């Protein structure tokens, strides 16, 4: 997956981009945790599942304009 890095108020964040169907399907499955400064963007998805996840997630939905 492609990764982008951006800064907000001096803090750096990394976002993995799940662009293909297979990347979105796999998502975070098989990972032990997600660092606090990292996220996963699933463009084109209107829902998510937690099947097989072993840790909680904070979820943010964006509209077509990228607004929360």
How are the SSEs placed, and which strands pair?
Blueprint: E1 2-8, E2 11-17, H1 21-26, E3 38-41
Parallel strand pairs: 2-3
Antiparallel strand pairs: 1-2
TL;DR of this structure?
This protein is mostly beta strands. The chain has one helix at 21-26; strands spanning 2-8, 11-17, 38-41.
Descriptive overview:
This protein has one helix spanning 21-26, and strands spanning 2-8, 11-17, 38-41. It has 68 residues and is mainly beta. A 3-stranded mixed beta sheet has the order 1-2-3, with no helix packed on it.
Largest sheet: 3 strands, mixed
Number of strands: 3
Specify the overall morphology: globular
The helix content, as a percent range, equals under 10%
The radius of gyration computed from the alpha-carbon positions, rounded to a whole number of angstroms, is 12 Å
Helix-strand sequence: EEHE
Helical region count? Answer: 1
User: Which structural class matches the secondary elements?
Assistant: mainly beta
What fraction strand? Answer: 25-35%
Provide the low-confidence segments as ranges.
none
Can you give the mean pLDDT?
90
Strand order of the largest sheet: 1-2-3
Distance between the termini: 23 Å
List keywords for this structure.
68 residues, mainly beta, 3-stranded mixed sheet, 3 strands, globular
């Amino acid at each position: 997956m492609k990764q982008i890095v951006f800064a907000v108020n001096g803090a750096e964040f990394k976002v993995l981009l799940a662009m293909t169907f297979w990347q979105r399907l796999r998502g975070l499955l098989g990972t032990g945790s997600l660092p606090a400064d990292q996220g996963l963007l699933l463009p084109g998805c209107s829902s998510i599942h937690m099947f097989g996840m072993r840790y909680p997630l904070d979820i943010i939905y964006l509209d077509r304009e990228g607004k929360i």
